[in-house]
Design goal:
It holds the Pfam family TPR_5. With 164 residues, the chain is mainly alpha-helical. Helices cover 68% and strands 0% of the residues. α1 (4-13) runs antiparallel to α2 and α6 runs antiparallel to α7.
Length: 164
């Protein structure tokens, strides 16, 4: 018999191309026997709203899931997804604050850095956004880590200043 987590994974893996009402019905079936205040239930409900482009409806369940003590790995996913949703709703400052909470040891840290760069850009901080993106790339670079980091640092330096 499949575990609840396996059924949830199967739901998301098969979501592409389905009509919104079909997805709502399937998710309702998945959560029907669980406590409606369960952080995982709230997270999955928020995720479906997000997936369907219903960002405003996703915010409340994301916040409730986080407040209810959502565990890893979904905790960091909820932070990232809520932050992305808030960015899409024009709330860049809140988005940036949430993305900065994702620890460097998280499996989705690099993903979070990409979303943070987007939020910084939207917040009118394009240099910091580009520096962050370049730094994230530098951590995975094979030969030019030092050069990429150097160029990223130069972006914030006054014109004419040399980096060593």
């Amino acid at each position: 018999m499949e575990s609840w987590d396996q059924r949830v994974e199967k739901f998301w893996n098969s979501a592409g191309g389905k009509r919104p009402e079909q997805l709502r019905t399937e998710l309702a079936g998945l959560v029907q026997d669980r406590d409606k205040q369960d952080p995982r239930v709230l997270f999955e409900i928020a995720s479906l709203h997000d997936y369907l482009g219903e960002e405003e409806q996703a915010v409340g369940p994301y916040r409730a899931a986080l407040d209810a003590g959502l565990d890893a790995p979904q905790h960091d996913e909820a932070l990232l997804q809520l932050a992305s949703t808030l960015r899409n709703l024009g709330q860049c400052t809140q988005s940036i604050e949430l993305l900065r909470q994702i620890p460097s040891g998280s499996p989705i840290f690099t993903d979070a850095q990409a979303f943070l760069a987007l939020a910084l850009h939207d917040a009118g901080q394009p240099i910091e956004a580009l520096q962050l993106a370049l730094s994230a790339i530098a951590r995975r670079a094979s030969l030019y880590t030092r050069a990429i980091n150097g160029y990223a640092a130069e972006l914030g330096a006054p014109a004419g200043a040399e980096q060593r």
